[in-house]
Amino acid sequence: GENVEQHPSTLSVQEGDSAVIKCTYSDSASNYFPWYKQELGKGPQLIIDIRSNVGEKKDQRIAVTLNKTAKHFSLHITETQPEDSAVYFCAARGSTLGRLYFGRGTQLTVWP
Amino acid sequence: SQTIHQWPATLVQPVGSPLSLECTVEGTSNPNLYWYRQAAGRGLQLLFYSVGIGQISSEVPQNLSASRPQDRQFILSSKKLLLSDSGFYLCAWSVLRVYGYTFGSGTRLTVV
């Protein structure tokens, strides 16, 4: 099956700085890569996703890049704000039954 | 629009007692359904997934079982809870090979 590695496990940034979270995947047939944000005590919420036929996607302060050759994808958050503090998960959809494989998560803390 | 309901939100149960967590989805037909657990507030551990009524796949052998008696209903059960069953339980659904998962709001289970 698919194997997704996520780094770093914790990330602290000053408000206004940028944050980058990186993930790698193993299955070259994976074709869909969502990112989820989980606030304390809540379920993960989809914040952005990218498909394998696209190299980059932006949504306001959030962007995701995908390098299919290297099999890695990244989440970029610019102008970070304290409300961006949460756990972020990357995922890759493998070739079996459309199942998602998740990274282990990154705890992002934005200090005011 | 599609919605997912998960209850209860919090639950405190004694060791050895039974468990039943319910998840229902509205606004879609024949979804894939998933049960996840977060033991330490971070990683998402897949417990069970279902691609149809009565079809359950188990990812991790343990003290829990799952059932899908109706198309949009997914139940997580245990006959006798262990202390190690404590955690944050999340239900999720997806449409096969199309989109990512939508998670419920979760159930915080504490076994005492």
Topology diagram in text:
The complex is a heterodimer of chains A (112) and B (112).
Chain A: E1 4-7, E2 10-14, E3 19-25, E4 32-38, E5 45-51, E6 56-59, E7 62-67, E8 72-77, E9 86-93, E10 100-102, E11 106-111
Parallel strand pairs in A: 2-11
Antiparallel strand pairs in A: 1-3, 3-8, 4-5, 4-9, 6-7, 7-8, 9-10, 9-11
Chain B: E1 3-7, E2 10-13, E3 19-26, E4 32-38, E5 45-52, E6 55-58, E7 65-70, E8 73-78, E9 87-94, E10 102-103, E11 107-111
Parallel strand pairs in B: 2-11
Antiparallel strand pairs in B: 1-3, 3-8, 4-5, 4-9, 5-6, 7-8, 9-10, 9-11
What does this structure look like?
The complex is a heterodimer of chains A (112) and B (112). By secondary structure, chain A is mainly β. In chain A, 0% of the residues lie in helices and 56% in strands. Chain A contains no helices and eleven strands. Chain A is globular and about 40 Å long. Chain A starts with a strand and ends with a strand. The model of chain A has no long low-confidence stretch (mean pLDDT 94). Chain B is built from no helices and eleven strands. In chain B, the strands form two sheets. In chain B, strands 2, 4, 5, 6, 9, 10 and 11 form a seven-stranded mixed β-sheet that branches. A four-stranded antiparallel β-sheet of chain B has the order 1-3-8-7, with no helix packed on it. The interface between A and B is medium-sized, with 23 and 22 residues.
